[in-house]
Amino acid sequence: MLSLVDVYAGYGEGLVLKGLSLEVRERQVVALLGRNGAGKTTTMRAIMGLLPIQRGEITWRGEPIHRLQPHEISRRGIALVPQGRRIFPSLTVTENLLIAAREAGRHRRGRERPAGSGWTLERIYELFPVLRERGTIGGTRLSGGEQQMLAIARALMTQPDLLLCDEPSEGLAPIMVERVAGVLKTLKESGLAILLVEQNLEVALALADYVYIIDDGRVVYQGLPGELARDEAAQVRFLGASA
Ligand SMILES: Nc1ncnc2c1ncn2[C@@H]1O[C@H](COP(=O)(O)OP(=O)(O)OP(=O)(O)O)[C@@H](O)[C@H]1O
Ligand SMILES: [Mg+2]
Fold it and tell me: What's 94's domain CATH number?
């Protein structure tokens, strides 16, 4: 579905991604792990067209997308939930959602791909009851967990087939981490593919069908989540985790 082959990218002179290759298949959750500064967010930004790549190829359903604008990538069915959430603080919950839907609709006009996954405000509120309750509340008055729900909901309003989710549990209380993980599980069961960057190894391994660990802009480990769960040496070596 999505494939990165030997991707090099960075900021200015400095390379961050140094020959990164990975793949996400239909309906899969793929975890992208690695230490701080390994290049996880940079990978997401490169896929989304927010950062030009200097070498290599990113293809989506067989078509190269690495020279497209972010809105063109979005309308092909890829959405990003950015690290740190980045919701519009001055807008209410509902306004945040409707703006995302309107932006996606504006760019989708006259294109071939229909709004396949069919996310409406009503369906969003069924998945995230808390957002219905908080509908008229300004974005900054939401808790961290509620903001994360809103950031995911906003991405869904663009009707993605692949969700890029960058550290959704970062900074959340354990109960909210569980709820966010529950939402991602529901989305996975609905058939959405997810590329998940996650520091919480337990959450990542519970959701993922496949795991990549990157270090210094390259894949240093890949395998099934069960394999990594049993491989404490790899966890310590690549993630610095004492299991
Ligand atoms: N806008 C930027 N300009 C210059 N360098 C950057 C920029 N953003 C990130 N970097 C550098 O690129 C490298 C990779 O950063 P990136 O954000 O991709 O890491 P990450 O794996 O997402 O880390 P974290 O776990 O802390 O989120 C780091 O060395 C970082 O300092
Ligand atoms: Mg990051």
Answer: 3.40.50.300
Quote the pLDDT of residue 241: 57
Domain span at residue 147?
A: 2-239
Nearest CA to ligand 1 atom 29: 37
Cα 220 versus chain centre, distance: 21
Q: Which of 50, 140, 144 lies closest to 95 in space, CA to CA?
A: 140
- Is residue 115 pLDDT above 90, yes or no? no
Number of domains in the chain: 1
DSSP string for residues in 8-23: EEEETTEEEEEEEEEE
- For residue 24, list its beta bridge partners: 2
Ligand 1 centroid to residue 120 C-alpha, Å: 34
CA distance 193 to 182: 15
Residue ranges lining ligand 1, Cβ < 6 Å: 11, 16, 34, 36-42, 83
How many CB atoms within 10 Å of residue 223? Answer: 13
Distance 26 CA to ligand 2 centre (A): 24
The beta-strand segments (E) located in 12-121 are 14-24, 29-33, 53-60, 63-64, 78-81
Are 73 and 49 in contact, with CB atoms under 8 Å apart?
Answer: yes
pLDDT at 112 over 50: no
Residue whose CA is closest, atom 26 of ligand 1?
36
